[in-house]
Structure formats: structure tokens, C-alpha cells
Amino acid sequence: MISHIKTKSGLQSLSFESKYVLTLPTGACKDSMAFMREAAVKAGCSSRNIEIVEEAKAVLQFCLHNKQEERIDDRSSSKFVVVECEGHPYSLYETDTTRFWVHYGLVILGAVLALVTAVAQWRDPAPYGKHERKDQNWGPLIPQRLGHFLSDALPGVVLFVLVFVFYGTQNKNYINYIFLAMFLSHYVHRGIIHPLIMRYRSPRVAIGITLGGFFPNCLYHFVNADFIGSAEYHSNYYYDPRFIVGVILFCAGYVINRLSDLKLRSLRDTKDSINEQYQRTRSYDAMSNHTENKTENPGCTGYYIPYGGFFELVTCPNYFGELVEWIGWSLATWSFAGLVWTLFCAATFVPRARHNHAW
């Protein structure tokens, strides 16, 4: 992208790039440098990406060192520099800092965990719902709604907000808050609203199952909150195709996920006879978010997939919708943190849907 920077009179115009070059006449005072830096920051530059140099020769050396193209033109005794460069749509941590290694170390750990999860769950389904085995003991039982809150709401809402606000940097703009709203829109529903409105077949769940969701969620939600709380996106990023397409995918997946959950909930509300219920459902299984898609009618404890809607297209549309959400998230944020979270979701949802379809 291109940035246009004009000295003496200050900043003429600016668009995002991976590095900003500000030039001043040789011998310029420190006040002039401070003014230029302040103007650049107000215009949307990351302070970590600003480079102040003197005269055309210094600019040329800087640009050649960074493999960028540049041209210099004299207009009314002012240096006019155009720097073309490519890079990420944000700046994060400087390399070789503690926070850099903590962030990307956890990202690598998340990638490894996603791979292990995919292999393990492809062989054997996670032991809850219809795949629960009576010969396995996963600890004492706790209320199902409490378990759902602990595994989803605590990491996805409480931890995420705390990391975003207190661990992230102070240089946030509206893009960061858009991502915060997107993430919370999903987890406020899934971790708080969903457990309150769903009718579970079993009122209790083993605490080991709850912790099996809690700890991975803490890992992935921490790195994602750290990223969107610290990344400094350029002020025009909302024009970027990655942001636009990512948000569209996130919203589409959100709608699919919510409609599928409502379909499942409507099955549990029905008071029809068993025969009428069988006519309107199929004898496969589906799951709501991190719970089984299960229907309990008077005198019947079977599992059913509702007829119609997205259930006609895929076995578990609620899983499919959520996976589309996180694909959109990783694209919009353009981050490794979002990518490893999406991979972990795929490693969980795809094998689970396969086992459900074969059941």
C-alpha cells in the first residue's frame, strides 16, 4: 500500500502499511520530530511502526534495507516521500520480546493440541451424550447447566473480556471493539443464554467432561483476546476484503447455528405423541453447541434429528454453522490465533459429526 508523507507542513495523507517513513530536513529540532510522530499516531499509525529519518539519502537507505520502493520529489522545499510496501493489516508485538514469545508459543501449543484432538476424536468420539460409556468414570456429577456455564461462559466471556481490557495494549481502535463484540455475541449466547433455554436430556454431567472443555477454551480464548486486544489495525481496515468477507461468513454461520439450536429446542417443547414425533423426525443424532441434539418425549428417550431446514443438508448444522463462524473470524482478524482456534473447532466438530452420522 502507499503512504504519502509531507514534511514541514506535517502529515499530508496516510494509508496503512507495515512501516511508516517520516522525513525531516537535516538538523531538524527534536520538537519537529515529536510533532511529526504525534501527527502520525493521531492519523492511525502504530507508534511502533514509525521511522523518522533525515534527508533523501537516509530514506533511500531505509527503503532499500526493507526491500521497498520509494521516490522523492521536491515541492516547495518540502520532501515528499511515497513509500510502497506490503505487510499485515496490523502491528502486534516486536520480535524477541517476552509478550511475542508468550503469544506465539501459546499459538504453537494450540496448533499441536488441535492436531492431537483431531487424531483422538477421529478414532473414538468424546464420551458424552449418546457416546457416553457407562464403564468410564469422569468424576463427580454437577448440574448440566452449571457445567455448560463453566466450560463456555467463564473462558469465552469473563476471561476474554479481562484479557482484552487489562492484558491488551491501550492503542485500541473501533476495529478491536468490533472483534470483541463479534466474539461476545457468540459466547454470551452459548455460555449463558443457551444453557438457560435448552432442555437437557440428562440434568447432570461429569465434572471431567466440563474440565475437558474448560482448559482448551482457556488456552484458545486467551490468545485470541490477547491478539485483538493488542493488535493495532490500520484505520481503513474495514475496507479490506479480508475483513468484509470474514464478517459476512461469521454472521452467516451465526444465523445457521442459532436457527439450528432453535430447531432442536422446538423438538423438546413438543407435546405430541410418540408416533407423531417419529413422523416429523429422523432416527439420526445431532448436537446443539457442545451438547447432544436430543429429544425427550413422554415415554420416549431416543435421539432424533429434526426434519427440515439445514438438517436436510448436513448431519449437524449447528456444528457446521459454528465452524463457518470461526472460519470468518480467522479471516477477518487475519491472525494465527484465530486460525488455530478454527482448526481446533474443526478437529472437534468434524469427527463428532462423522460419529453421529454413523450412529
Give the helix/strand layout.
Blueprint: E1 2-6, E2 20-24, H1 30-42, E3 50-54, H2 55-65, E4 69-75, E5 78-84, E6 90-91, H3 98-123, E7 141-143, H4 144-167, H5 174-197, E8 204-206, H6 207-230, E9 232-233, H7 241-269, H8 274-280, E10 281-282, E11 286-288, E12 291-293, E13 305-306, H9 317-333, H10 336-358
Parallel strand pairs: 2-3
Antiparallel strand pairs: 1-5, 4-5, 6-9, 7-8, 10-13, 11-12
Helix pairs in contact: 3-6, 3-10, 4-5, 4-6, 5-6, 6-10, 7-9, 9-10
Description of the molecule:
One of its GO terms (biological process) is lipid metabolic process. It is found in: Membrane. This protein is α+β, with helices and mostly antiparallel strands. The chain folds into two domains: 86 residues, no CATH class; 265 residues, no CATH class. Helices cover 55% and strands 14% of the residues. It is elongated and about 70 Å long. The termini are far apart. The N terminus is likely disordered.
* Percentage beta strand: 5-15%
Counting DSSP E segments of at least 2 residues, the number of strands comes to 13
The main sheet orders its strands as: 1-5-4
User: Radius of gyration from the CA trace?
Assistant: 26 Å
Number of domains: 2
Question: Which spans have pLDDT < 50 for at least 5 consecutive residues?
Answer: 1-18, 55-59, 64-86, 271-302
* Helix-strand pattern: EEHEHEEEHEHHEHEHHEEEEHH
What number is the mean pLDDT?
74
Q: Span from first to last CA? A: 53 Å
Shape, please? elongated
Output the structural class: alpha+beta
Percent range for helical residues? 55-70%
Main pleated-sheet profile: 3 strands, antiparallel
Number of helices: 10
